[in-house]
Amino acid sequence: MAKSWVSRSIEALSDLVWQRSCELCDRPAKHQGLCLACDRRLLASQLPLEQRWGRLPANLVSSAPLFLAWGLYDGSLKRSIAALKYESHPKLAATLGQGLGRLWLTPGTDRAIATPWQQLDRSAPWVIPIPLHEARLQKRGFNQAELLAKHFCDVTGHRLIPNALQRIRDTQAQFGLGQGDRAANVQGAFALGPGLGQQRPRSVILLDDIYTSGATVQAASHSLRAGGWTVAAVVVVARSAQRPAPGTHPPTRSAPTRPKRRDS
Questions:
Q1: At 19, is the secondary structure helix, strand, or coil?
Q2: Which CATH number fits domain 48-239: 1.20.1070, 3.30.160, 3.30.428, 3.40.50?
Q3: H/E run at residue 145
Q4: Model pLDDT for residues 232-258, shown as the tens digit of each residue
Q5: Nearest by Cα to 34 from 99, 106, 105
Q6: Spatial CA neighbour of 225 closest among 184, 191, 264, 187
Q7: Where in the chain is the domain with CATH 3.40.50?
Q8: Distance (Å, rounded) from C-alpha 98 to C-alpha 146?
Q9: Residue 242: alpha-carbon gap to chain centroid
Q10: The pTM is what?
């Protein structure tokens, strides 16, 4: 819902009285908690259209879902994710999540996957964030993927389903592990959660902060598929700079309309 004139005025006045600091560098903030320099660097980290979109291979996720990444896990984007997760700056989730939502709604030029993408829009898939284990959630105080997903849904109009998945094993951090160790680390780590309730299975979007080897997405997709759900797309803030892109085919779509929220 748009802010009222009164609330915007109060917010502007509070900014004058209590100058907000940039979430990344502590200079005076100008836009969504960032200074102009950090905001520009973050926008500049967006990948070109032809590198932003792709498809995950069917041997990783059987449904070969569409894939969207804001940028590479490097530079300003890496710094922003670290500040969000480890330095207790959850406000950055608004900048990143809303930015992802706008990229999601940006048309592409490749006709090869235009039809499935248009069908995906019409079906208005639900958005499922990758969960944290309860122990890590208690320590951090929030699940960064869920915050990102909330702001993504604010822009796209898709429905967020928190607690759709549960992390039933407190796995080791994937950072620093080899590909084989990553897969073993998250194997059997996820189960369907209470958020899905008795809903009829449908297409969903998985959303996370970082994509590296695909092991986490594969493990989460396996649990969803076992319950009859189909992962139609995977959306992340950053993908690894050390690995090839999952695909290089941007989708073609006519200008999308905001999908209606569904109650079932």
A1: coil
A2: 3.40.50
A3: helix 144-156
A4: 999 999 998 766 566 654 444 444 445
A5: 99
A6: 191
A7: 48-239
A8: 13
A9: 20
A10: 0.81
